[in-house]
Predict the structure.
Amino acid sequence: MIRFEGVTKAFGGRKILDDFSFEVGKGEILFLLGKSGMGKSVTLKHIVGLLKPDWGRVFVDDIEVSCLDEARLGPVRRKCGMVFQHPALLDSLTVRENVAFGLRAPEWTEARALERVRETLGLVHLGPELLDRLPAELSYGMQKRVSLARTLAPGPDTLLFDEPTTGLDPITTTAVNALIHDLSRNLHVTSLVVSHDMESALKLADRILVLDQGRILALGTPQDIERSPEPLVQDFLSEALERRRTR
Ligand SMILES: Nc1ncnc2c1ncn2[C@@H]1O[C@H](COP(=O)(O)OP(=O)(O)O)[C@@H](O)[C@H]1O
Ligand SMILES: [Mg+2]
């Protein structure tokens, strides 16, 4: 579904991605882990065409997105839903209007859009009683769900998550992780999850990729990663253990 071939990207002479190649298979959950500033968000931006590689190529579903202009990126962006760390809802719009945001006429009549809004709220375990509420009237965890529902509404087949559990309390983290799991397993959505949360990665990922200095430091199943001799990977693992212990 997603494929990077030898992608190099530099900012101000500093290489953020350095001959970086990997792929995410259809229906797979791949966690991309790395320290802050290591190019995780930059990687996601290449997939939706917000950034272009200096060298190398990026494919989504065998379409080379790294050579598409803005006009031709539209269909790709509809296939790839992006889920940001913070719920980016429009404050003055109701839950219904926020979730329906990407459902435009003529494909979506008002009646079909409302039906789809109800259905996607159901996917994130929210009821229709919330339809007319404003974001400020919801808890942070609910806002995150509404934000996820908005991304899901147009029916993307790939979801790109940027730090979905960073800064969340353990209960909301568990709920968000359960959603990622269910979407992937029930709807066969392909998920690329950018994170530095090794604990969630070990629980959810089919494979984990650890990015460091623009390159792959480790790549494999959670079991492979747990056996990795790399000191940085071991740091991530002991941090995850520590967090589990102190709860
Ligand atoms: N558009 C940009 N222009 C210049 N530098 C950028 C740009 N986007 C990201 N960077 C730099 O690239 C590095 C990686 O950023 P990012 O991918 O956001 O890190 P993270 O792994 O924390 O998500 C950072 O040093 C950041 O400052
Ligand atoms: Mg980031």
Q: What stands out?
A: The mean pLDDT is 92. The radius of gyration is 18 Å.
